[in-house]
Amino acid sequence: MNILDNIVLQKEIEIENAKQRYSIKDLQLTDLYKRSCISLSESLRDGQSLGIIAEYKRKSPSKGLINIHHNTVKDVAIAYHNAGASAMSILTDKIFFGAEEEDILIARAYSQLPILRKEFIIDAYQVYEAKAMGADLILLIGAILSKKESKELSKVAHDLGMEVLYEIHEEKEIELIPDDVEMVGINNRDLKYFKVDFERSMRMFDQLPKDQLKIAESGISDYNTVIDLKRKGFNGFLIGETFMKTKTPGVTCGKFIQKVLEEDYL
Fold it and tell me: Model pTM?
């Protein structure tokens, strides 16, 4: 059994436990559930920002502890906003990625950036949770969902005013992409064994639907890589470890963005 299989099995247990603590009706009564979501796709389409989706990440199954300087989600949320990031991604898995229950709630209180709930979503309940947390968009992973499941979860998100980033890892998953998702992400990291292959994004780009925004995810540590991907046609770039392993993730993010903007990449 690979890492992804283990995560999904654990997620099934967590969801059932969560449903016992809070019903969907309970989630709908929270203050943040009523807020209007901030659109990431609109800002990516208008071309006013570079498209960096900066991630808050404590650890991972493949790398162990990443946030070695123990930067708080509050400080990083403020710093990413000031650095010029287009959005913030926050992992909410506790066991494998070390998330804490209040992470998105805290980030939401200190940042006006669109927030992506980065989670292994397999049940509509998790989408309602994301809305109640204050997230603006969710991640759906093609490797763990059927096309029918993806469509159903995407519809729930859209009914709640949220957007969807649909993540694929292999060419065979392209046919699973729902027609109505705003963004399609190519993850350069294999979620089964967590190996990184950056060329994955380049190889698969031309096969993606033309009318959906394209996001390159994982394995991006050099600003020249973003320039190459931008020239290829990618609209956004999800970057976590490159920022989070440093003493000041926001400063690192800001310098990274500035280096890209200094280049005549178009």
Answer: 0.95
Domains of the chain: 3-262 (3.20.20.70)
pLDDT score of 63: 86
State which amino acid sits at residue 175.
E
Tell me the mean pLDDT in the region 133-145: 97
Task: Note the pLDDT tens digit of each residue in 180-199.
Answer: 999 999 998 776 666 777 77
To which H or E segment does residue 137 belong? strand 137-141
Element (H, E) at 64: strand 64-65
Pairing label, strands 59-60, 64-65: antiparallel
* Long-range pairs for 64-70: beta carbons < 8 A, 24 or more residues apart: 65/98, 66/240, 66/241, 66/244, 66/245, 67/98, 67/244, 67/245, 68/245, 69/246, 69/247
Q: How far apart are CA 63 and CA 191, in angstroms?
A: 13
* pLDDT given for residue 192 in this prediction: 64
R_g of the chain, CA atoms, integer Å: 17
